[in-house]
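Exercise (ungraded).
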Amino acid sequence: MIHLNFLRENPDYVIERLKIKNFDAYEYVQHILSYDKQRRKFQKQLDDNFAEQNKIAKEIGKLYKEGKKSEAETLKEKASQLKEEAKKIEENFTLNEKATTETLILLPNIPHESVPQGKSAEDNEIVFTEGDTTISPNLLPHWDLCEKLSLIDFEIGAKLTGSGFPVYIGKMAKLQRAIINFFLDNALTEGYIEVQTPYVVNEESAYATGQLPDKDSQMYHVEKDNLFLIPTAEVPVTNIYRNNILKAEELPIKHCAYSACFRREAGSYGKDVRGLNRLHQFDKVEIVQITKPEDSYDTLEEMKTYVTSLLRKLELPFRILRLCGGDISFTSALTFDFEVFSKGQQRWLEVSSVSNFENFQANRMKLRYKDNNGKTHLLHTLNGSALALPRIIAALLENNQTTEGKIHIPKSLQPYTGFDYI
RNA sequence: GGAGAGAUGCCGGAGUGGUUGAACGGGGCGGUCUCGAAAACCGUUGUAUCCGUAAGGGUACCCAGGGUUCGAAUCCCUGUCUCUCCGCCA
């Protein structure tokens, strides 16, 4: 959520910047500002009324002590009157306050100045490419390989649950476990503190990181308990610090977490969802950082470099995209996507998304820190996938298939798998 | 799932209707003393929001949300969480 004070002081700037996200904020901003103005007016009235009430209440207490009962009764009446008035003022106050935040919450985060203009994924800016993307003939897509080698059974998964919930078998199951450990160990070396958090969160948490109210149709909802299956570990991990005021010396906070992720992916279809390309449940290791505002863009670079190092260790060809205004998420100020080239399908697959949310999430969740002068400020939150497993596996299978129909395991993973070929 | 107890500031812990934003102790910060430090002593120490250029002032907040009352941390209702006992259980 954009900070109200900031919007109040820079309404034109906000409107201008949100155009990059193809969002026409003009009407919203006008409404917010007028609601906010009303709110403040009523708040002043209400506060003055309360002040008067408090004064009278104290006097009544005093009069009672002195035994001046009838005088107290007169004051009581006056207090009751004030209370009646307060009720009306309060109604107006609450109405405007609610309207302010309910409208404010609809505004997406202000994009960083480097975010390119654009309508869709087509307009993302490719900032870096590395690795060999030449295709040799007869490379199979991973779903064929999985069937041939009995590695993943999509049909049993569909029988157990539904489509998009595959069953991993034998060496594939072990490979997954190996990759998770490989990612976690690397993150630990990088200084991230590992956390294991719940896979279901309450409404408040989902709201704080911005999944609600924006993307509620993308989450599985356990209605009976009003809980949500996490679409990413970002949600529980960032929410650890919800409503906290951290000390300057605690920063930056660096966490990594493995979790299963659940996404309804409503409305997707076609070859995009074939095989491992898009699942309802998948595994991911996530990295999360919480930093002082002035450090967050350096941190974003650092996280980018880290994800790059992982892809190099996995020997996968990859590229980095700077998401354009049309493709960047509601909550993000700047996002880099990492895509690996999967030779069997001959297409790029997104395996990581590294974002700086600046204070957008922090403002929602009241995540602040106290500087050395004792002043509190909102923090910046960042996160990135490091990495999401299914498409990594798809690329490993497709790119590392040998002419004998085996799959070569990259060297860095071999200590974790215990085998070098599938 | 059943029965009971509880939730107070950075921490411990008082407070059961009237100058209580909150005693007392600890911690933190500032100061006096000291060459320096410790000890001792003095002072200070929450968040949000509103008015104000500022100084300053108002309001709200003692788990959350409602209610009673002129007035609530204190009484009532609902919810959440924690602890103890019983049941069940990886």
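Further reading is listed at the end of the chapter. For now, observe: Chain A is about 40% helix and 20% strand. The first strand of chain A starts at residue 125 and ends at 130.
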